[in-house]
Amino acid sequence: MHSFGYRANALLTFAVTILAFICAIASFSDKFSNQTPSAQIQILNINWFQKQPHGNDEVSLTLNVTADLQSLFTWNTKQVFAFVAAEYETSKNALNQVSLWDAIIPEKEHAKFWIQISNKYRFIDQGHNLRGKDFNLTLHWHVMPKTGKMFADKIVMSGYQLPNAYR
Amino acid sequence: MDWQGQKLVEQLMQILLVISGVVALVVGYTTESFRTMMLIYAGGVVLTTLVTVPNWPFYNLHPLKWLDPSEAEKHPKPQVVPAASKKKVSKK
């Protein structure tokens, strides 16, 4: 500790180490938050349902998404990434997941929302298996913290079905 | 800075930084503001820098006692015999 440079270096190193500790504890404090998210998705309309020239089925839907993700936000949350995926089974694949809509929620105030929208991303099958298909609509979310590990969870809503014939 | 001063500086530095960290964490958690925590900690680091890095007078209260020159003459340094080889001999 006998020179300016020596002391400055020691201070900087120790300060950064303590910063790392603070961030680790802040990230750990997220475990104590009580999280009760809720969501509902309604299919208002099947806009069209066709077989493409390449042989794949495609559907266009109008969805009504209602969700309350406010309890996911803690002091250590930077943003929540939410997306709606249609999940179904075919003879070729045990699980097909097609992302229909997503959003980045930067603040708690925006986390309780109601949105009516046609699917942001195209719902295209690998093949032509969608006629009369039962599928789940799942709202997934990824909570991105300011420091620490990102974690993801979902709510599965089942009971949706596509029509038996193309329209 | 003398030896006592250096010891004091090291202790002060560690204590001040740890306290800044703890206070920052507690205030940030209770106000639910990450930004507050970071600002308090940054303030604490700046304060610690001002207290510990410059060579303040209160770190020099126990200066080293060097021997008198007369005392040093009583114990002469050993003479170095210059060698015949071309090696450089450095006299202290």
Automatic annotation (TrEMBL), chain A:
Xref: InterPro entries: SPC3
Transmembrane segments: none
Main location: endoplasmic reticulum
Domain of life, source organism: Eukaryota
Topological relation to the membrane, as annotated: Single-pass type II membrane protein
Compartment(s) of residence: Endoplasmic reticulum membrane
Alphabetical list of Pfam families matching this protein: SPC22 (PF04573)
Keyword Membrane: yes
Keywords, comma-separated and alphabetical: Endoplasmic reticulum, Membrane, Signal-anchor, Transmembrane, Transmembrane helix
The protein's role, per its UniProt record: Essential component of the signal peptidase complex (SPC) which catalyzes the cleavage of N-terminal signal sequences from nascent proteins as they are translocated into the lumen of the endoplasmic reticulum. Essential for the SPC catalytic activity, possibly by stabilizing and positioning the active center of the complex close to the lumenal surface.
Family classification: Belongs to the SPCS3 family.
Protein name: Signal peptidase complex subunit 3
Source species of the chain: Camelina sativa (False flax)
TrEMBL record, chain B:
Compartment annotation: Endoplasmic reticulum membrane
Pfam families xref list: SPC12
InterPro entries: Spc1/SPCS1 (IPR009542)
Protein name: Probable signal peptidase complex subunit 1
Annotated organism of origin: Camelina sativa
Keyword Transmembrane: yes
Superkingdom of origin: Eukaryota
Topology of the protein relative to the lipid bilayer: Multi-pass membrane protein
Key words of the record: Endoplasmic reticulum, Membrane, Transmembrane, Transmembrane helix
UniProt region (Disordered), positions on chain: 73-92
Gene: LOC104702779
Protein family according to the UniProt entry: Belongs to the SPCS1 family.
